[in-house]
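Trying the structure run again after the queue cleared.
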Amino acid sequence: MNLLLAHRKKSRSPGDDMAMVESRRRFLQQGHYAALADHLTELCRNQLPEQPTIWDAGCGEGYYTTHLADAMPEARVFGLDISKPAIQAASQYKKIDWCVASSTHPPYQADAFDAIVSVFSRVDSDPFDQVLKPGGQVFLVAPDNDHLQALRNIIYDQVRPYDTSKHLSYLDQRFTLTQQTRLEVPLRLPDAQAVEDLLGMTPHAHRRSAAVDARLNALTTLEDTACFRIYQFTH
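Done. Tokens:
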């Protein structure tokens, strides 16, 4: 379902394009971030009521969304993304309610959800406050300061740590931080395609140059560490 109104588009085709969607799907289907999907699912299992309603805000092609739905068959799961190609890819999985829309204007009723999941996606207090039940949970996944250090060393002459302090400013006083954890996932990418897919699914792809391409072309494998910070907020 496409509910993205024309006046809410900032470009003709907002969000991830098909190339980025395909890169991310190939990479994730190889199981490189399976540990994150498992961790997120376990949090939802432990923290949510029976038969919960869960919204994946900025779901992309639906990797984490489908992982949640498969592991929690009693849950009703919704996936929303501003990218039409992403939702087209996700919609092959029929058990989830998919929607093309902006997470700043979600087309859901008030107090519709027991939980909102946001993995590397936009977080906004007002719409989250509107659609999340009182006492509901927000699970926010963001990069920790040393996320993908080896990949960034290839792309940038000077690598700066991610600014993790901003994560706690995404949600206002209507949401209370109840816990945060760090998850490290070792990556051993076996070939050049996996390296290209990892780069292609990140914002770093926009910073590539001829020099970066030369360094990438010289790689046949890559060892790196994905470092995530997982925050849980209570509404």
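The chain has one domain: 6-145+161-186+228-234. Worth checking whether this holds up in the mutant runs.
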